[in-house]
């Protein structure tokens, strides 16, 4: 049985199952789901709890199997937690988890809770995870994406009796809040709780939120690709600034940008050779959100613009490795900014790709505010 996190409360209000598997890469939501299961279990008499963390290929599964069949003198019901941080239980673990799943049926003395990271499709269709899902309840905790973050913040504020103002000001406040906490949901939760301590229930003004919420955003270099393809230059500039502040490697940021340009060129060339767009995307292993982004931006890009950006990516590859190039910033982060904003603007409008690549003095600054990378801009940047 599969449940979304939002369905878990209603499920637990009706009954507590003997087996749960929580999987996903959002620690806050996974922890909240596990806490809800434990709280419901305690009301049903599951008063004892043991925990096992599977680490390494030689983990002793016999202790876990024995725990499910033994009770202490002080409790007649128990919770057995199995944490598998790698998501790979191994051959012995696969067999053990299948045994645990089968034994869960009709077992009202032991509640087994399996905690897993995000799983790929092959793992989710494997024998051991299918056994957990078929004999118990699986809860997949998805990452809250940036476009859904303002609404998530509003819902969390509502749970503590607070809200932002209605209309444009309230939306601006939520967007500001989301910008400050993007990529760091646990810190976002803490910032929301801080507002409950600082201000009473009711309406929150822009000034109250702006004065209270710290900048705790954490940026993922692969999310940069998402922002660039979405044609969002303000977010791209902010992410580059954050990635540099966090000490991200310039070569990794360049790889992400260059791979998008190369992939766009490959798909465009395949279409020019007569491949339908869906086939060209599949052949180049473009799928999911990236596939939808490519479908949106490819009609806006012409072959000449992509060829120019490919040459620009080659130039920036040298810059981040210490080479100087005429008419380009000598600083790697400024060169990355220029390359990213060039692609970003092209994805947004399909126009101006040539002018932004060929006119360095106009593209070395962000569209809305300059980026300050702690260096002096080089001539030609």
Task: Please provide a written account of the structure.
With 381 residues, the chain is of the alpha/beta class. The protein folds into three domains: 2-141, Rossmann fold; 146-212, Helicase, Ruva Protein, domain 3 (Orthogonal Bundle); 221-363, Zinc Finger, Delta Prime, domain 3. Helix content is 56%, strand content 10%. It contains 19 helices and eight strands. The strands form two sheets. It has a six-stranded parallel sheet with strand order 1-6-2-5-4-3, sandwiched between helices. It has a two-stranded parallel ribbon with strand order 7-8. The longest helix is centred in the last third of the chain and has 23 residues, at 250-272.
Sequence-ordered SSE layout with sheet pairings:
Blueprint: E1 2-3, H1 5-14, E2 19-24, H2 27-43, E3 48-53, H3 61-67, E4 78-83, H4 90-104, E5 110-116, H5 121-124, H6 127-135, E6 137-141, H7 149-159, E7 162-164, H8 168-181, H9 185-198, E8 202-204, H10 206-212, H11 221-229, H12 233-245, H13 250-272, H14 277-283, H15 289-297, H16 303-320, H17 332-349, H18 353-358, H19 360-363
Using brief descriptors, characterize the structure shown:
single chain; two-stranded parallel ribbon; alpha/beta; 8 strands; 381 residues; Zinc Finger, Delta Prime, domain 3; disordered C terminus; Helicase, Ruva Protein, domain 3; Rossmann fold
- Terminal Cα span: 57 Å
β-strand amount: 5-15%
Side by side, the strands of the main sheet go 1-6-2-5-4-3
- Described by its quaternary structure, the protein is single chain
The top-level CATH class of the largest domain is Mainly Alpha
DSSP E strands, number:
8
Q: What radius of gyration results from the CA coordinates?
A: 25 Å
- Helix coverage percent: 55-70%
H and E string: EHEHEHEHEHHEHEHHEHHHHHHHHHH
Largest sheet: 6 strands, parallel
What is the typical, i.e. mean, pLDDT? 85
Overall number of domains: 3
Q: CATH topology of the largest domain, which one?
A: Zinc Finger, Delta Prime, domain 3
The name of the CATH architecture of the largest domain is: Up-down Bundle
| Poorly predicted ranges | 351-356, 358-381
